[in-house]
Amino acid sequence: MRKMYDWMMRMAESPRAPWALGVVSFLESSIFPIPPDVMLLPMCLANRSKAFWYATVATVASVLGGIAGYLIGYYLFEIIGQPILKLYGYTNKFDTVTQWFRDWGVWILIAKGWTPFPYKVLTIMSGVAKMDPVQFIIASIVARSMRFYLVAGLLYFFGEPIRDFIEKRLTLLTTLFLIALIGGFVAVKFLF
Known about the structure:
The protein is mainly alpha-helical. It has one domain. The chain contains nine helices and no strands.
C-alpha cells in the first residue's frame, strides 16, 4: 500500500494530473466504477493551494459525464439497460424506482449525488425517467460541487493533519474506502 500511495502522491504533482482528474470524473459519472476521489484526495494533499481548482475540475467534468449518463438512460436504455434488468429479474422494482425519479428526481440526485453511492446509476436513471434536463443539470451541479468542494475544503484547511492521519492509517483507510465503494454497489442491488 505504501508504494502505491507514494506513487499516487508523485502523480498528483504532475502537470497532467488535472486532465486525468477530469477524465476520471467524466467517466465515473456514466460508466467507470472508480470514484474521482482516488485522484482528488492525493492531488489536494500534494498541492493544497490548488484544492479548490481541483474541485472545480472534478465538478465540471463530473456534471458533463453525468449528462452523458443521462443521455445513455434517455436514448439507449431499451437497447442496453432493459435487457439487463430483465435478465436479473429487476423489472418490477425498476418501475417503482423510475417513478421515484419522476416524482423526486432532483432531491434524489442532491441527496445521493454527493455520497459514495454510484453517481452513474443516478444519471442513467434520471435519463430513463426523462427527468427535466435543466433540473437534472442544476441538481447535479449542486450535488457534485457539495461533494468535491467539501473534500477540497477539508484538505485545504486541515491538509497536514489529514495527510499525517492518512499516512499513519493507510491500510485502515484503504479498507474503509473499499467497504464504502462495495457498499455503494450493494446499495444499487437493493435499490432495484
